[in-house]
Every structure is written in structure tokens, then in C-alpha cells.
Amino acid sequence: MSNSKEQVQQLFQKGSEFLQGGNPADALNCFRQLQLLVAPNPTVFLYAGTALHNLGRFIEAISSYRQALELAPDTGEIHNNLGNSLMATGNFPEAAESFAAATRLLPSNPVPLTALATAQQALGKIAGAESSCRSALSLAPDFAEAHWNLALNLLLQGRYAEGWREYEWRWRRAAFTSPVRHINVQQWDGSALEGKTILLHAEQGFGDAIQFVRYVSLVAKLGGSVLLECHPELVSLFQGVEGVQTVLPFGESLPDADYQISLLSLPHILGTTVDNIPSKTPYLSPSSGHRSKWAHLLTDYRDTLRIGLIWAGKSYPDPLRSCRLSDLAPLAAVGNSTFFSLQLGPGAEQMSCKPPGMKLIDLTAEISDFSDTAALIEQLDLVISIDTATAHLAGALGKPTWLLLPYAPDWRWLLKRADSPWYPGMRLFRQETSGKWDTVINKVAMAFVQNRP
Fold first, then answer.
1. Helix (H, G, I), strand (E, B) or coil at 230
2. Around Cβ 422, how many Cβ atoms within 10 Å?
3. How far apart are alpha carbons 325 and 441 in whole angstroms?
């Protein structure tokens, strides 16, 4: 291709259109060609970095942004994007520095302040994160991302009244993980339900649904008939929830309803505080058929302490919540114990390298849905887990659960507590340093010595 101004402009425009259209691979190809045709250009490096970030190639994105900054050090957008890629690699200190630089260069833009709040919260700077959110909202009162970050911050602090209110802004985020559902049905406001039908629907991940399905029985006690819509994998388990009339999977035709509301909006409507969380467990239970199946499968392990293990979760949005099976090696010293893998999906391959001396049984091939997992957990004495849906399930079943938390925990686990007001049978073991699991695991091993379950 000849290095004509018109051809360069066309290539840049094409790459920009690919990027905006959600095609980062072709966009990157265009910007790579441009880098061969023109003198180093900060905008080309910026856009190439954005394409790399969207492809999940964060280290390369960081390099591209740094090259852009060498050419244009006072460009706020580059600092902000660099911060996003640093966040994705878990480099929170440098991410915070990048976002802080972006806020100085873009003083009227709420985006860098909101991103800075995310980095500050990851660093444990809770007050600073709240301040950044409120500063962003002073610039743009209707900026949904800042409201969302503020909600997570307030809920983490246990300030539920304002936190639940802010949490309702999630539906106005540009890229929320769940779609807005059933807008043709009136949203419930807490009014009387006698003679009415209400549709409660799950959102976000399995763990969210399991944690908040506890509210179904409270709504049912207000009168009316309760329909529940959820992930297909949870339908069987949720059919036994107290107060529910019908459970249906997402995507299936639904009966008519007078009202609808998401499960995660119920704490706001019902005025949940840290002190009045409906914490009675168990509120989930498997069917008798599932119980019989798993009782039979574990017949040969009745004379040992039976412990379930989960060590890995999805890498996005929180890669630091997972550990490795090898990190749990100190638990092999627990006497007269048999460990059972509850690990499904990514991380399960680590079973091929079990910690020396650990008797670890893998029956996960027998699991077809969450009812199977629930019935297996019921046969155990204890579950040790990172922050996963299975940990929520164990808590909802009332099973003693030891939860391994990263330095920057999800909002629902609050701060500096060794217990959870959501699950009375749960004990929390928190990282003292980001990314360091050894101290956590050693505390768990010591807990066996001090208080064998």
C-alpha cells in the first residue's frame, strides 16, 4: 500500500469502525498496518491498546498505552485506558496512579474518578473510594457507573439503607451483566399482594440467585401467588423454596402476573439492614431422590471427616478471588479426613496434581445441576471454598462453611468480620495481603486444630 494521506485516513477510519462495532481483532490489524505506514502516533497507539484490551491481551495493551504516553503524556484518555488494563492484570497501585493522572487531566469528566474509586476499593482505601464516587456524581449526578460503584462501596461498609438505593442504578449501566426484564409488567413497590400474582426473577450469577432466593418466602407471606424465574440450572433446586408456586427457567413462556421485581431489588423494598437480614437456614434443600443418590455414593466414607473443596472461580470479573489446589496442601495434614472436590469448570484440571498426602475424591461427573451439588454438600461435614456460587449454596443449606476471601472482598462479605450475617454457619478467612493465600490457608489449618468441625 502506498503511503498516501488518503489511504492512511481510510485505514484509520476502518480500524475505528471495527473497534466501535465490537470487532477488535480486525481493528487491531488496521492499527498494526498504520504503525508500519506512519510515524509513531499517540492516537494509533491508543486505539491499538484499546483493541488489545478488548481482546483480553492486557499486557500488550499496557505496552501500547505506555508508547502512546511517551508521545502524548498529558492525554487523559490514555492514562484512563492504561488504568483499565492495569486493573485487569491486578496491578491496583499503578492503576490508581493512572486514574489519578486522568482525573487531573480531565477535571470535568466523571469517568476517571469512577474508575479511581474501583482501584481504591481494591486497595482497601474504602473512604477514598466513597469520596471519589461522590466527586464523580457531583460532576454528573445521573452517571450510572458512579452510582453503581458507590452502591458497592456502601454495601461493603454495611450502610445498607443508602447502599440498596444506589444499587437500583445498576439497570441504567451501559453494560450491566443482566438484561432489564418484564418492563411490560408493573414493578412491585411493596404494596399488598392479596389476590395478586407476583413474578420474582433472578439476575446476574448463580451465587446472586442463591443468596437472594431467601426473600421468596417473605414475599409469599404478604399474600398472593409467587412465580419465580431463574437460571435453568437452578430450577430443580428452587422448586423446593418455601412460598413459591411455580419455578420457570429464563426464556420460557410465563403466566400473566400483576407485578414483577428482581430478587436483588427485594432488600431495598423490604428495608433490609445488617441487623435484620433474613438469615434463617437452611432455606434450600435437595429432593429426596437426590439425597438418596448421594447418600449411596458416599457410603464408604462415613467414618472420616468429609470436607468439600472449591479453589477456583471464573477469572472475570475478579481473578484474585481464586487460589490453586496446591495452595491447599497444608490441609492434607488434617487427620482422619477425606476431601471431596466440588470444583467444576476451570480449575478442575488441577485434580491431576493433588497435594501430597491429601485424600481427594472427585465425584463431580455425577453432578448434573445444583440439586446434585446440594445433595453432595448435605453429605459432607464441612465445605471450604473461595467466593463462589457453591459457597453460597453451602451457606443456604446451613452447612458449616469456611470461606476464603481475597484482600478486597465482594460487598456482601462486609469488612473485618469473621462471620457473615447472611449465613450463620459460615466462617470467613480473609487475606491480609493482596494475592497471598499462604497465611489464609495456615489459619484454616490451625482452625482444625483449635476447633475441629
1. strand
2. 20
3. 11
Once rounded to an integer, what is the mean pLDDT over residues 263-292? 97
Which pLDDT band, with edges at 50, 70 and 90, does 3 fall under?
A: low
Q: Outline which parts of the chain fall under CATH 1.25.40.10.
A: 5-172
Q: Which CATH class is domain 197-270?
A: alpha beta
Sheet holding 197-201, edge to edge: 246-249, 225-230, 197-201, 259-262
R_g of the chain, CA atoms, integer Å: 25
Q: Could you identify the residue written with the cell 506512519? A: 38
Helix (H) / strand (E) element for 67: namely helix 58-71
Q: How many angstroms from the chain centroid is the CA of residue 60? A: 25
pLDDT of 1: 44
Task: Tell me the torsion sign for CA atoms 95, 121, 328, 377.
Answer: negative
Q: Please give the class, per CATH, of domain 288-450.
A: alpha beta
CATH hierarchy code of domain 5-172: 1.25.40.10
Backbone φ and ψ of 386, nearest 5°:
-75, -175
Selection from 426, 421, 422 nearest residue 404 by Cα: 426
pLDDT at 417 over 80: yes
Please list the residue range(s) of the chain that carry CATH number 3.40.50.2000: 288-450
